[in-house]
Amino acid sequence: MPTNIRIRRGNKANLPSSAPSGMPLWCEDTQELYVGTGNGVKIIHTYNADTVDGYHASSFLQAGNQFVITSGANTGTTTYVYPPSGYTMSNLVAFIPSIRVIHYNGDVDNNDSMYCYYSYEASRIAVICYNSEQRANPQANWLAVWRK
Fold first, then answer.
1. What are φ and ψ of residue 13, in 5° steps?
2. Contact residues for 29 (Cβ-Cβ < 8 A; gap 6+)
3. How many Å apart are CA 80 and CA 74, to the nearest integer?
């Protein structure tokens, strides 16, 4: 069952002067993202966005040198995600993998399996995406949140 994540949203003129720590706030009119700090709000700036085949491949978001959000889409059964420069695995606060593309082969019936999961390693995160009827390498999306 999918999980819905709700983000407080509205026009920038109605942006509160403070919000609980970590609460995301979206300004619909300016398309800016803010995060609550407990006693204020900080804007999340976007740097170094690029695309591959028209899809968002990675982005680097930073708020006040504390939060960093990295994301990507990789091809292959196993993908490795490394901390951004200056961060370690101890700075990881959230991680979400998801299936991007699965290529089926043969009959899909009640003896098939499909999964996407991750595990923490000493210096990286391993994302495993697989199905028992694959005819080509699967693709996985991921999103990581880091905080110093």
1. -60, -25
2. 11, 12, 13
3. 9
DSSP the chain: -------EEE-GGG--S-B-TT-EEEETTTTEEEEE-SSBEEEEEEEEEEEETTEEEEEEEEETTTEEEEEEEEESSEEEE-PPTT--GGGEEEEEEEEEE--B-S---TT--EEEEEEE-SS-EEEEEEETTBSS--EEEEEEEEE-
Instruction: For CA atoms 74, 80, 85, 89, give the dihedral sign.
Output: positive
Q: Which among 59, 61, 123 is positioned nearest to 91, based on CA atoms? A: 123
Q: How far is CA 6 from the centre of its chain?
A: 15
Tokens for 1, please give them: 């069952």
pLDDT at 107 over 70: yes
For the chain, what's the residue count?
A: 148
pLDDT in tens, 74-101: 888 898 999 998 899 999 988 999 888 8
Structure tokens at 56: 């968002």
